Amino acid sequence: MSKCILSILTLLLTYSISFSPFTIVLADERERIKQAERVDIDPKILTNIYPQETTIALPPNAVARFGRGGRSDTVVSPDGDLVAVVSHIGVWLYSAYTDEFLSLLASKGENIPSTAAFSPDGTQIAIGYRNGPARLWSIFSQSIEAELPAFLQGGPATRVTFSPDGKLLATSGWNNEAILWDVDTRTVRFTFKHEDTVRVLLFSPDGRHLATGSMDTTTKLWDVETGKQFRSFAHPDYHRPLAFPSGHTEIYNEGGIRCIAFSPDGKFLATGGMYRDRDVKLWDIEQGEQRWSITFEASAKSITFSPDGRYIATHFTDDVVHVLRIEDGTAVQFNLDTEKWIGRSERKPPAEHTSEGVRVSFSPNGKHLINLGANNTIRVRDIETGVEVKTLVGTDGYTKTMGFSSEGEYLGISIRYKDAVELWREETIARFPHEVRVMIAEISSDGTLLATGGRDNKVRLWDVEAEKLHQTLSGHIAPIRALAFSPDGTLLVSSGGHNWEEVEGDDGTIYHVSLRDSVEDRTAKVWDVATGENLVTFEHLGQVRAIAFSPDGTLLATSAGRTDIRSTKTWQDIATLSTVNATCLTFSPDGTRIAVGMGGRQPTVQIWDIATRKPIATFTGHKRNIESLAFSPDSSLLVSGGADGVTYLWDVTSYR
After folding, report:
1. Mean pLDDT for the stretch of residues 101-112
2. Cβ of 655: how many Cβ atoms within 10 Å?
3. Potential cystine with 528: which of 154, 224, 327, 533 (Cβ 3.0-4.6 Å)?
4. pLDDT for the residue 1
């Protein structure tokens, strides 16, 4: 995977087809069935019905939350009773024995947790945040006052850890520093410097030394009493230049320290590299020398010493572990089921700790909420109870969306990294091979056509049933960023993005660079699906990131920061909305309002009145960009899905 993550535009999904079992249903009959089966929801009753973990610590105006924000860290309390899962929206506490949900330590405002550690006595938990500070929370108090004053790291926190006696707290961050704090006084004892990000921290068993492992390939030992460096152990340097096709050169670091471990007696330190650095090294701390070094086929995720200090386990995956003798590094046969000290590379979160919210939609009758999560799973929920009634697990793919077949069945769309786009339900049902990188895909509302946007600046239209290319649409000057079909499937709108260069590293990693003078496509093009004719092209001030048609197809909205709404009859402007950094759009069922998802440090959902050109509602709660939006058929609820792995249901009855 690339270490430079490209921003690949999210899609708006607005579907209005029937769930009738018949493939062909007359329009009047379809509407009659939809109205007869439609469910009207009173959002205020849902909070009393849904499980506590779905309604705890909700932002204002939110009725429920689905998905728990992904996971960046998982830690177990010293007594083994609790599991803490660090997510985008807070730290979730579970019983280690039953996986039962116990509490959510919800973050506020722009704070996004990144790491956590229990105090040695198990009464507190330290949480490090991506915007810099670390905070202490009392585990057994549910009041907001449980949050204690901040330890300011000065940059995004990468790790927090307590000393064995609980009197000291160490924090590290992307600012190349580790800080040692006095827990009682909240004061800084020492600041320890590296040349690159400090990724791991660990106190020695006796608490006299702090080990810091950095992306600069070194692990340093610091005396916690004097603040002086005691030892420094180095791995090979994997910084190297990469030349792109234009001749531009970037320096990339393909190494660094991922994991460290002290032997129980504190005499040895084991270090493991990351990325291309696949070495595990054992160091004699007193002598300051390397005992041995072994290069594996992959970099280790974690390291564990045996209680007697005779062996070391290097973890790669749950089922791939190598056990080595401390004496000489030779391999030892073992059994995962009997060698309890070996454990696992990391504690898995409970099965219910899902990451959702990438794409969201309501069924046409309002009975179900459909959600495609970051884990490539479509979840179908009964909206009245919040109960999951169906789950579909799909194929691999780096960008995903969802749609409906012509029979009204849910299906997922997976864009594979290099070679194809696949449609799936319980299994792959159609495959569309590509010779170029596909950036985005969208399916028509009747499920008969698939549109794919490529790295070669072209849009391809595919016949879903025949699995054949229908036609290719050319005219953009950069890779395709967004696609949207009109409700009747006669029109397709596409937008371009930004050109970038890429080069493949020796290990297969793809590196990207986007230069300031690269060509940028700031247009949205309207295509006649039947003929492939470009009917009209709209110029914008920036890249068009979001496109949406009104349910009746008479309005088209495009967002390139601000949002422009036009008539599809005349293509004349109807309204311009002063939105900022818009990422997704959806019209209300009656077409009089539009919901806009906006990114940035505080992602925001706004509902705008099209006639007055003013926002009438604003909702905040997501921690990362909002990926998709949808109104319920009765306009009582708005659902938003975010890159934070969370779906929110918002009560919009007062804005109807």
Report:
1. 88
2. 15
3. 533
4. 32
State yes or no: pLDDT of 37 exceeds 80. no
DSSP letters of 561-591? SEEEEEETTT--EEEEE--SSEEEEEE-TTS
For the cut 70, the answer to whether the pLDDT of residue 14 exceeds it is no
Q: Which amino acid, 508?
A: G
pLDDT of residue 320: 87
- pLDDT at 182 > cutoff 70: yes
* Residue 636 and residue 21 in contact, taking contact as beta carbons nearer than 8 Å: no
Which conformational region is residue 34 in: left (phi greater than 0), alpha (psi within -120 to 50 degrees), or beta?
Answer: alpha
Is 342 strand, coil or helix? helix
Report, as an integer, the average pLDDT of 595-601.
93
β-bridge pairing 626-631 and 637-642: antiparallel
Contact 259, 269 (CB under 8 A): no
pLDDT tier, 374 (very low <50, low <70, confident <90, very high otherwise) = confident
Percent of the chain clearing pLDDT 70 (strictly above)? 90
Q: Give, as one character, the DSSP assignment of residue 521.
A: -
Measure the CA–CA gap between 58 and 43, rounded to whole angstroms: 14
Residues 338/627, Cβ–Cβ less than 8 Å: no
Query: In this structure, what token pair is assigned to residue 388?
Result: 């999951």
Closest listed residue to residue 654, CA positions, set 607, 621, 620: 607
**What pLDDT is recorded for position 145?**
39
Question: Secondary structure of 418-436 in the HEC alphabet?
Answer: CCEEEEECCCEEEEEECCC
Task: Convert 316-330 to b/e letters by CB count within 10 Å (16 or more is b).
Answer: beeeebbbbebeebe
Between the two ends of the chain, the Cα-to-Cα distance in Å is: 45
Q: Is the pLDDT of residue 264 over 90?
A: yes
Determine the number of helices (DSSP H) and then strands (DSSP E) in the chain.
3, 56
Exposure class string for 248-287: b at 16+ Cβ within 10 A, else e: eeeebbbbbbbbbbbbeebbbbbbbbbbbbbbbbbbebee
Read off the tokens for 532.
């492939």
- pLDDT, averaged across the chain: 87
Helix (H, G, I), strand (E, B) or coil at 45: helix
Query: How many residues in total does the chain contain?
Result: 656
Give the integer Cα–Cα distance in Å for 502 and 480: 16
* 3-state SS, one letter per residue, for 492-526: EEEEECECCEEEECCCCCEEEECCCCCCECCEEEE
Tell me the pLDDT tens digit for each residue of 509-542: 788 887 777 889 999 999 999 999 999 999 999 9
Quote the Cα angle for 1-628-519, to 5°. 55
628 neighbors 402 (Cβ within 8 angstroms)? no
Which residue reads 């300031």 in tokens? 516
CA atoms within 13 A on the CB side of 144: 3
